[in-house]
Design goal:
Layout (H helix, E strand, L loop, with lengths): L4 E4 L4 H5 L2 E4 L8 E4 L4 E5 L12 H11 L9 H11 L1 H4 L4 H6 L2 E3 L19 E3 L2 E3 L8
Parallel strand pairs: 1-2
Antiparallel strand pairs: 3-4, 4-5, 6-7
Length: 142
Amino acid sequence: MNLLVVQDIFLTETAEYADVVLPDKSWGKVEGTYTNTDRRIQRVRKAVEAAPDVKEDWGILGELSTRLGYKMNYKNSEQIWNDVRELVWEMYGGISYERLEKEYSIHYPCPHEQHPGTKILHHNPVVKVNGYCSSGSSSGSV
């Protein structure tokens, strides 16, 4: 590995190996979204204010990107989310901040505002037996 960059709130064991450590805000001090491993997207709001001199995580990455030649002029996390929604519309197009304010969470894919979200992505279980995969949809034995 030629370069390791870590963004964290503590000097973790991983950060000790890093060439560059960027500061981070803890979860209670940020605005934005989280995506869980079950593909559920939730809106998060800051519970407490960070110290005045602490930058937003996305602001730090935006500054770095701009210095490396790709200008990022975001003003807030919602603008970033809207870019993601536009670029990957088939997954996130229907998940706006406004909608997340009304609904607790939405599962992607959710391609448009009228789509309810996809709570179950795969209806047939995948079974692995002796190193082989089966979708579980065939009528024969595995």
